[in-house]
Write a sequence for this structure.
């Protein structure tokens, strides 16, 4: 069985960042059920 990552990507933040882009990933339960939206 493959490993499930809760947060596969680290945030990318620079000292001069001016824009914040928010998003989401499927929940752990969705990964366990192989159900993605």
């Amino acid at each position: 069985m493959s490993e499930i990552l809760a947060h596969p990507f680290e945030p990318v933040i620079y000292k001069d960042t001016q824009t914040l882009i928010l998003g989401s990933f499927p929940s752990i339960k969705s990964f366990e059920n192989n159900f993605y939206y």
